[in-house]
Amino acid sequence: MNQPLQNKVFISTRPAGMSNEINCLLTEKGAAVLEFPLIEISKTQLSFTEKKQFTRLNQFQWLILTSSNGVWIFFEILQEINGNQKLPENLKIAAIGEKTKETLESFGYRAAFVNPGATAEDFSEPFANRLKTETTKPKVLLPVGNLARTVIQSSLKEVANCTRINIYQTEMPLKTDKNIAERIKNNRYDMLIFTSPSGIRNFVKTFPKLKNISMACIGDITAGAAINNGFHPLIVAENSSSKGIVESILNYYISKT
């Protein structure tokens, strides 16, 4: 059976434990995947006021969940504060992307709004148009990471009262795998995979003098961060998802045969 990625080595920079889907998709095509996390995600220490919002979820009409990380951490905090993971019946949920939707469903909830794309830009205009149809200006809760951009709340300011809470933070891991670091320095790999601008920034901190690298980016936003830091991505996935970036990688190598 032809495996277009046979003997190729990919290095994923996603947080620990989050490369499973990419790993499976690439190894099915004959590749080897090494994990070199350049991002670490942890819960934020919420203020008293922020914790209060979790006890008063019935005051909101919409909850926006932007990522699988956000879903897991939101329900973890909800359990800690309220002692359960129950949401008010009147609270509708909007999810960005299919992966977020699927993670939400694992908690027993279905999204009332799911946008087809996976970025804040894809989500904002369609969701704002949805809110315009409501009879009153809704209250929206937006739990996100500390590095999340302001695209969503900016787009909703005319149609909703949006409350943002940073429920998790993205940091650089304290330790990295020295063997994989040496492999990267010595160019003993085929492609580095980046899925966020923070991964790009942390790569620069880890390898400040290394610019000539082979890299694939999950979408335009990550690719833009790479270019701003002096890199030239070989692959930019049109579909910002694990399946999307693997499909783009396949197309890239098939086109070179």
Automatic annotation (TrEMBL):
Its keywords, alphabetically, are:
Lyase, Porphyrin biosynthesis
| A Pfam family recorded for this sequence | HEM4
User: Which pathway does the UniProt entry assign to this protein?
Assistant: Porphyrin-containing compound metabolism; protoporphyrin-IX biosynthesis; coproporphyrinogen-III from 5-aminolevulinate: step 3/4
Tell me which EC number(s) this protein carries.
4.2.1.75
Q: Which GO terms describe its biological process?
A: protoporphyrinogen IX biosynthetic process; uroporphyrinogen III biosynthetic process
Q: What class of enzyme is it?
A: lyase
Q: Which reaction does it catalyse?
A: hydroxymethylbilane = uroporphyrinogen III + H2O
Q: Where is the Tetrapyrrole biosynthesis uroporphyrinogen III synthase domain?
A: 21-246
Report the GO molecular function annotations. Answer: uroporphyrinogen-III synthase activity
Q: Which InterPro entries match?
A: 4pyrrol_syn_uPrphyn_synt_sf, 4pyrrol_synth_uPrphyn_synth, UROS/Hem4
Q: What does this protein do?
A: Catalyzes cyclization of the linear tetrapyrrole, hydroxymethylbilane, to the macrocyclic uroporphyrinogen III.
Q: Which family does it belong to?
A: Belongs to the uroporphyrinogen-III synthase family.
Its recorded name reads Uroporphyrinogen-III synthase
